Each structure stands twice: as structure tokens, then as C-alpha cells.
Amino acid sequence: xxxxxxxxxxxxxxxxxxxxxxxxxxxxxxxxxxxxxxxxxxxxxxxxxxxxxxxxxxxxxxxxxxxxxxxxxxxxxxxxxxxxxxxxxxxxxxxxxxxxxxxxxxxxxxxxxxxxxxxxxxxxxxxxxxxxxxxxxxxxxxxxxxxxxxxxxxxxxxxxxx
Length: 162
Known about the structure:
Blueprint lengths: L1 E10 L1 E6 L9 E7 L10 E3 L5 E2 L6 E2 L1 E4 L6 E9 L12 E9 L1 E6 L4 E6 L5 E6 L5 E5 L4 E14 L3
Antiparallel strand pairs: 1-9, 1-14, 2-11, 3-4, 3-10, 5-6, 7-8, 8-9, 11-12, 13-14
GO molecular function: zinc ion binding
InterPro entries: CXXC_Zn-binding_euk (IPR008584)
Family: Belongs to the UPF0587 family.
């Protein structure tokens, strides 16, 4: 199992999480390589926690299936869990945001290309279109008359014990 961890500095906001629901799916995007021949896929791959596909010659369903163009091995990724709690303004360390069962592939880097959402720490305001691709986000909470931001965003992939 591989965990996707987040560490960031939240100013005036809390409960940062993926914008994901039964009607709008967060598309996880990763740079990946084949675990067999170590060939990196030329483009990042994307998948979500809700749609499943089958792989040839295996049982079960996966979030993503890829056949390596070099060695022809099949790799799979299954979104095991996505945090409903998200990242809070009280979190001073990394927090696990999602867990993946990865077989035959290696996740190299998470590309935070999708939308996130968070809430004001000082009012009832909600921010539903948070983009973190540049590692930071700034807005204004009109209800609390204050600036809000997310800065120093760091994503890391960690091997979890089963």
C-alpha cells in the first residue's frame, strides 16, 4: 500500500480535501513507471476512486490498468481509501490523504491537477475551487474580512505497512 501524504501551511482555512463526491470525481494524476523494466510512462496517468476497470488474466476490478509498452507487463492501481477528514489548520505534520494498492507499477510523483475544497476557519464560507498545482492558493473570505491562503504545499508518497 502506498499513502499520499500532504503537508501545508493553512492561513484562515481548514478541512482541505479533494473535491470528490458521487457526482463529481476527483481525478488523481501520477507520473508512473513500470516496476519490471523501470520505463517511465511518457505522460502522467489519471484515475478516480469511483470508476473501475478489469485487467486481462486477473480477477478483480481496479481504478487503473496499464500495460507497459516496453516489457508488456500489466500494472494496476486501486484507490483503497480517500480521507474524508482532509487536512486541518491544526495539523502540523503530514496527513495521509489517500491510500493506493499499486501492483506492477511505481508511483513517481503526484500531480495535484484537480480541484480541492476547504472551509474558512473564521466564518461559514466554503471555497470549492481551490487549485494547488502551483503549490499555493490565495483568496479572500468576505464574511470574515480577511485573506486566506494555502502555502508551502508538499506531497509525498510513503510505503504503508499492510
